[in-house]
């Protein structure tokens, strides 16, 4: 299939390698210096555009894809306050938009495990719960999109927490997410339940960006020919 890449940084390069190895054609690469290429015949020939840019540029890029009716696989994080607007534009315009806060298979298994554990822990309010995430120093947003998805999984299932908070809790109903930025760490997420007597924790540690890039290309293959708002649950059907 024909793939356009929007954002040609660490993820864009990794996705290119995997897409080519799976027999796809990269027909257009758009980064900060060539936004006019959204109007090019090459971009319009894409079956799917895979977008990994920056929190500030992502929404505008999605809009430009919608204008050309090119389906989007969206990987950028840090723009979720605009999600309703994007969903509305997607449904009203008959567009295709796939979003995942994390494209790795392992992390999506971890999301399921997180919800399962939270459902059990809901009966044991003597345990407090927190989330720690560590990423490389170049990451622009905090907490990570993955940590937000994990927090939502806990909040859906634990009756005694009602919102997430970055770094400090204002009250005991806050689920604290600690964000650490360190070296070149691809991504570590850990959920910890602690009582007076013991600690239970589950952890996902990415070894590289390869799993993320592979997941994004598989999502693009899944997205081709479909309509509407899509996500990992539609694709993986755990
Ligand atoms: N959903 C996931 O699974 C997942 C995985 C990894 C990274 N991410 C997210 O993806 C995004 C990109 O990550 P990265 O590690 O590749 O970052 P990066 O900084 O290496 O690359 C970002 C690229 O976007 C380009 N860019 C800036 N403005 C642009 C614009 N207006 N149009 C097009 N490109 C533009 C930059 O020049 C750069 O090349 C981040 O938000 C990151 O958090 C998501």
From TrEMBL:
Residues 106-236 form the Dihydrodipicolinate reductase C-terminal domain. Pathway: Amino-acid biosynthesis; L-lysine biosynthesis via DAP pathway; (S)-tetrahydrodipicolinate from L-aspartate: step 4/4. The keyword NADP applies. It catalyses: (S)-2,3,4,5-tetrahydrodipicolinate + NADP(+) + H2O = (2S,4S)-4-hydroxy-2,3,4,5-tetrahydrodipicolinate + NADPH + H(+); (S)-2,3,4,5-tetrahydrodipicolinate + NAD(+) + H2O = (2S,4S)-4-hydroxy-2,3,4,5-tetrahydrodipicolinate + NADH + H(+). Coiled coil: none annotated. Gene3D superfamilies: Dihydrodipicolinate Reductase, domain 2 (3.30.360.10), NAD(P)-binding Rossmann-like Domain (3.40.50.720). The keyword Iron does not apply. Residues 1-103 form the Dihydrodipicolinate reductase N-terminal domain. SUPFAM superfamilies: Glyceraldehyde-3-phosphate dehydrogenase-like, C-terminal domain, NAD(P)-binding Rossmann-fold domains. Its EC number is 1.17.1.8. GO terms for molecular function: 4-hydroxy-tetrahydrodipicolinate reductase. It is an enzyme of class 1 (oxidoreductase). GO terms for cellular component: cytosol. Belongs to the DapB family. This is 4-hydroxy-tetrahydrodipicolinate reductase. The gene is dapB.
